[in-house]
């Protein structure tokens, strides 16, 4: 049985998705630690913020590692065999960010060998996940088909951003959710 209160969630990538994940984890009584390359301030629900260089030091403390980072040259394959070896044998990896950030073959070995306790994946290195991939039959894995971001008001929220950005553009204000091409997100 998994007991969320008093467990530690390490949220890797504390942008919009990561901050909301942290808020929800904190609501379940979890202690939330954040790792982010650009954010230094702790959003609501995050007890501590750290730079990416602290990730290896923080992994052994986490009961849940939630990856929400974008796919960039720096994040590609960041969760690999070496990092799984740093995690608690009872820890769970959750990837709701980008599939290319987790090496699935390394994850499969870590799960099979008991290096970590389980995983929840919504994104994969190759989508859809091939039908013959061993993660489909792993007993300690939950797989979803890239639907973690869907909700009852998603279309309304997207429309709200488009309308707000049109208003901002017309009045010469800075736009919301602008992609930084240099950072690739």
TrEMBL record:
One of its GO terms (molecular function) is NAD binding. Residues 4-148 form the D-isomer specific 2-hydroxyacid dehydrogenase NAD-binding domain. SUPFAM superfamilies: NAD(P)-binding Rossmann-fold domains (SSF51735). Gene3D superfamilies: NAD(P)-binding Rossmann-like Domain (3.40.50.720). Its EC number is 1.1.1.95. Keywords: NAD, Oxidoreductase. InterPro entries: D-isomer_DH_NAD-bd (IPR006140), NAD(P)-bd_dom_sf (IPR036291). It is an enzyme of class 1 (oxidoreductase). This is D-3-phosphoglycerate dehydrogenase.
């Amino acid at each position: 049985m998994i007991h969320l209160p008093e467990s530690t969630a390490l949220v890797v990538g504390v942008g919009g998705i990561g901050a909301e994940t942290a808020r929800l984890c904190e609501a379940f009584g979890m202690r939330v630690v954040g790792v982010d390359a650009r954010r230094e301030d702790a959003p609501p629900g995050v007890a501590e913020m750290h730079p990416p260089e602290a990730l290896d030091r923080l992994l052994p403390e986490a009961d849940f590692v939630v990856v929400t980072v974008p796919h960039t040259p720096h994040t590609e394959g960041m969760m690999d065999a070496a990092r799984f070896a740093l995690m608690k044998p009872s820890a769970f990896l959750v990837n709701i960010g980008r599939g290319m950030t987790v090496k699935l073959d390394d994850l499969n070995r870590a799960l099979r060998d008991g290096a970590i306790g389980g995983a929840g994946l919504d994104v994969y290195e190759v989508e859809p996940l091939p039908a013959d991939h061993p993660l489909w039959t792993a007993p300690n894995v939950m797989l979803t088909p890239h639907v973690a971001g869907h909700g009852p008001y998603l279309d309304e929220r997207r429309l709200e951003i488009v309308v707000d950005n049109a208003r901002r553009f017309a009045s010469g204000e800075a736009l919301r959710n602008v992609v930084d091409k240099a950072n690739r997100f």
